[in-house]
Amino acid sequence: MSESIPQRFSDLASLRRSVADWRRAGERVVLVPTMGALHEGHLALVAEGRRIGRRVVASIFVNPTQFGPNEDFSRYPRDLAADLALLGRAGADAAWTPAVETMYPPGFSTRIDVAGLTEGLCGPFRPGHFSGVATVVTKLLNQVGPDTALFGEKDFQQLRVIQQAVADLDLPVEIQGVPTVREADGLAMSSRNRYLSPEERALAPRLHAVLTEIVATTRSGTLVAAAIAEGRAALEAAGFQVQYLAVCDARTLAPVERVDGPARVLVAAFLGRTRLIDNVAV
């Protein structure tokens, strides 16, 4: 595997020419969409891409349309040189780094809204977020034209929204989720973890611990509502400000009263100024 810096594209025509060359050679192309500030979770996606395909393209684009007016777009961490070095270490073949003007030129007026899946969980707290995600990911899929695109399961609602959009729009690409990569203490890896103070970082693994406790208690027969109430109380006692904590059907994301099929325990909570999300399969 090469550890050189991947070929960087900021011009769409050049990117498409290279992808077309790979396809003519019969090579399978995998896309790993990112917003940069890469960590081992992103590199695991690239590694999976290397496993299932011949060519891996990682996109780096901090998408303004998925940030709300009071969210962290302006302070979202950006370090392109470091990101490119990490992608090279992981074996990515190319980095697609479009400018905002390339993605949203003057007069851009189209958006994609996915109903149902976006109405609960993060949806009410981040109005417009999933429309921004669905729109930018659809553009990335059309720009790169991959056979497969990989997304981390940490953003499980996002994964389901993208899968639904791709199915509804008949896009010729397979969307695969990749299991969440965690720190040794259980905290889900996230670019936003760097916002945590040392004291907050010490508390943050409690989020995952509570989710695993809810999984265990619901499997032992405890009613979902009781397990959720106990988990919320535990998080609030530890200093989290909980936005939601729910057990949902893994396909529809509708809340469930009892677990009798594939489900997920999902949470979003603030620790200080940092919003953390996580989920665990039941």
Structure, described:
The protein has 282 residues and is α/β, with parallel strands linked by helices. Helices cover 37% and strands 19% of the residues. The chain has 9 helices and 9 strands. The protein has a 6-stranded parallel beta sheet, sandwiched between helices. The protein starts with 6 loop residues before the first strand and ends with a strand.
Measured on Cα atoms, how large is the radius of gyration?
19 Å
Q: What is the total tally of β strands?
A: 9
What is the architecture of the largest domain at the second tier of CATH? 3-Layer(aba) Sandwich
User: Might you state the CATH topology name of the largest domain?
Assistant: Rossmann fold
Secondary structure layout:
Elements: E1 7-9, H1 12-24, E2 29-34, H2 40-52, E3 55-60, H3 80-90, E4 94-96, H4 100-103, H5 129-144, E5 148-152, H6 156-168, E6 174-178, H7 198-203, H8 206-219, H9 224-238, E7 241-249, E8 263-271, E9 274-281
Parallel strand pairs: 1-4, 2-3, 2-5, 3-4, 5-6
Antiparallel strand pairs: 7-8, 8-9
